[in-house]
Predict the 3D structure of the following.
Amino acid sequence: MSSVLNWSFFIVYSIGMVILGYVGMRRSKTAEDYSVAGRNFPNRISIPLFAASFLSAASIIGFSGAAFDSGFSFLLLYPLGFAVGWLALQLMAMKFRRGPSWNTTPDIFAERYYSKFMRSWMALFYIAYMFLYVVIGLMGVGLIVSVFLGVDSRLAFLIVGVVFLAYTSMGGMYAVGWTNVVQFALLASGIALAAGFGLYKAGGLGNLFAELGAISGDGIAQGDLLDITRGGDYSANFLIGSAAALAGTVIVTTYYHRMFFSAKDDRRAGSFIGFSAPILLTLYVGIGVIGWTARVLLPSGTGQEEAFPSLIAMMPAVMAALVLTAVAAAVMSSIDTQLLSAGVMMSHDIYHKRLNPRATQRQIARVSRWSTLALGIAAIVLAMAEVALIIEIYNFFITIAATTLFVPLMLGLYWKRTTKEAGIVGTIVGCVGGVFWHVFGPASIHAVTVMVPLVLVLMVVVSVRTAPPPADVVARFHSREDIPDTVEAH
Amino acid sequence: MGLGIPEVLTILALAGLVLTAFASALRNFSRPDDRQDSRPTKREVQR
């Protein structure tokens, strides 16, 4: 592998990103510019922004590994759940446009549940959640970049960390939006190249499926890799549970909500998710093809997470450099959005709404920038300290996010009678119960299949037994017309 | 290629979900601008 070539690709890419960050900084005058890009994004930014944020380290390295391991059932394990999530988010778009000054998801929880406690609790939950995503993402990209640049993985965490932290903390949402357009172009070409290369080596699609069906050994019988249950390894219950968990996680993801707030108008906010869906599905099929061809091409005994890196090692130097830059781009395009979310919630929900309500725009913007920087540095330090299997941590967090946030968000947006008390009980029971089930519960029954119905029943019971929500809250969230100016008074 | 009914159904479900999302986006995007943005302008918010 040509290290000079790889370094050149990476340096050109990094300089480009940092320049966009600097331009974003010049453009960001107010706190609202920094958090939601002045509510000004057209679809030509929102679509690649959503698609590139969606594809992360877990998507590319983890999911090609999952396709490598599970064969055809990969489609049922991941893309199907995501597709449900895209459709749900698309249909919910206008619900996220009802607050004229919403910057973050805790804004929605605070106003809908007319509770300061809900603001702080949801902000802290989301900050921790986003922060851990950033650490996991950094670890993922570090593994790839260390091979790519021929450096130690810790040094790779540091190099990647400094680049994405520089443009994210400088330019806020403008920088994240603009860099993601470039990153999207890179990652889409990278996936297309890698899938094309794999298919070429495997002798075409027909041959790929024939060979995939013939593989046996390591607990796999012939034909299992073409079977949607992997020869009975995945029960229907488990598959439905994990699809539901993924869909639930997509719906509650705070940085997609901020893309609704950042869109220029209702037409754009109401369309960028649906327009991204076919693009994303195509890319996921490409990721599947990468994993499936790796299974056919690589020797048996290759580890799941080695699948994609090993395939890259087989490529010609220029192609390998481009694909690796694409992977770095994919990872950065997710962790920049996640880090910005955490930084913005720190300044908007914790600093401005709870600690210093009289803060000026300039102060809030400054706190945003500094908290983004501080959280980013902490994430780099944590990533350098420990390495774990990416997909396992990812699975744990998507589960807890779905059990904690999904029912309270959906009930709050769609059922008038949902009360503050129900929101508090629902989020706490969902979080504690989700962790408990994930750690101690039987693996054959997904935590989401147990916790979602439980939290739903609990929240309905608590709601009907407590005083109904105030009229202005109901009007803001559930009327068709006459959105009240503000419900901040609670 | 040896794909059975459950595999074909999975592919159809994926295509159906994605196309429905796309159709919904198309409808929202091509809606004429007779209805104003559901959010007040910045000036209205400050008031």
Q: What stands out?
A: The interface with chain B takes residues 43, 72, 75-76, 79-80, 83-84, 86-87, 90-91, 93-94, 97-101, 205-206, 209-210, 213, 223, 226-229, 265-268, 270-275, 277-278, 281, 483, 485 of chain A (CB under 8 Å). DSSP finds 21 helices and no strands in chain A. The mean pLDDT of chain A is 89.
